[in-house]
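Recall the central idea of this unit: under ordinary conditions, the amino acid sequence of a chain determines the structure it adopts. In this exercise we apply that idea directly, starting from the sequence alone.
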Amino acid sequence: MTDQVLVVINPRTGRHRFRRQVPALCRALVGYGIQPQLQVASSPEHLIQCVREARGMKAVVVVGGDGTWHAAIQGLAGSDQSAALLPVGTGNDNARSLGQARGAPEELARAIAHDQARTISLGRATLSDGRTEWFSGILTAGFDSAVNARANELNVPGATTRYVAALLAELPRYGPSHYRIDVDGSIWEGDAVIASVGNSAYYGGGMKMCPHANIFKPYLAVTIVEYVPLVTFAKAFPSLYRGTHVNRPHVHIMSGVEVSIEAPGHQVFADGEHLGSTPVSVTTEPDALRVFSTGTGDEAHSLDHS
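Accordingly, the structure predicted from this sequence is:
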């Protein structure tokens, strides 16, 4: 292993925040005797190629948001290459789960230099067409997927503002779908609006949809929201930011290592990225990636799973 770090940048994310943070990161790395190599990714496919070619370096630092991180782990998962995320995106939910502070490039350089890293679990989704894809955040297959798709189309600053705007736009389409969800052989079946599978707790820029998830432990956290009248659903929405929605009678939580979701015609998203459509199967992969970060991760304080 060499004392070199690949810094791979998505220039289209975060309204050019990388222009301030990447130079600070590189200066700090050099101060620790670590040589940074910069690469600007022209596409998700190019980014995957870049991280795969970095094998043997001390670390790959991914500069971007949740979508950039999602692309990077397609080339990093299951390898012995260590990685880090410098969050400059809009939502930064994966950074929140990993404990990587925003606007802290010097602290991230220190974590790399001092080998401050932990292994994380990843989820692996198998889509209806047989493709597989890794994710580190939350996979969704329901009304929230439709909201996610709408949010990706909106040019609205701020993750929370954009998500709420997308939610309001999708409310006329709110309605039940019949789900059959299998978690390690335990079946939940009924009419629902949301079925989320969390490798970690957050999506949508800080909404704690799966508060019982923990990215450092090898299990998947499932949150199912039964169909309720729109007024009831809307009143419960603010509780998503605290994770207290799971205390409501129409919300069910489960956990396991293998999850399958059957529901008619729903889009499947993970880490905010479109993967395909239902049905979808998900498994957990323990110790799938070694990650440097500046903290312990907010999920260290999530609901325990033993």
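Confidence is low (pLDDT under 50) at residues 299-306.
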